[in-house]
Amino acid sequence: MKLKIILLSMAMITLSCQNNSPSMSNEKNTQHTNNPYYSRTDTTVLNVPDAEWKKVLPDSIYQVARNKATEMAFSGKYWKFEGLGIYYCAVCGNALFRSDSKFASSCGWPSFFQTIRKNSTIYKTDNTYGMSRTEVLCGRCNSHLGHIFDDGPPPTGKRYCMNSIVLDFVPDKQ
Ligand SMILES: [Zn+2]
Fold first, then answer.
1. Rounded to the nearest whole angstrom, what is the distance from the C-alpha of residue 2 to the centroid of ligand 1?
2. Structurally, how many domains does the chain consist of?
3. Is 107 among the residues known to form the active site?
4. Which label site among 3, 50, 99, 105 has the fewest CB atoms less than 10 Å from its CB?
């Protein structure tokens, strides 16, 4: 019970920080300065070893993208976010989702019903933790993004359950 309260208040702190966040895009630019593989225009498939990613990625991104960690539900920056724009892979800059394919899900992670391009993501069977799931990986850099489930809304019926930390949101220009 105590733990539940702690988790809840952490989620609320995250939320209130989100509202006060001044400029998301500036943060992102500094985040990628050490990453020579990041590009929002180059779609060439990357084959970069984990040792190299470890050098160029912030540890929080590395743990999810390359070690397949999962961020805590309701803790990420995008689970309840409703901005209009495009979500890119935070590791390599590959375009993944448009905001109009995002839907309100109670699961605590940002959820989408389809990718921006058919080959934006690739899929792999994941039988870890005693579950049979389908892992979603970035189609350009092969980083772990989350999982896909069959309980999403129309028209696809799919739910891409993603980790916020491996997504970069870029708002549409007004
Ligand atoms: Zn990527």
1. 38
2. 1
3. no
4. 3
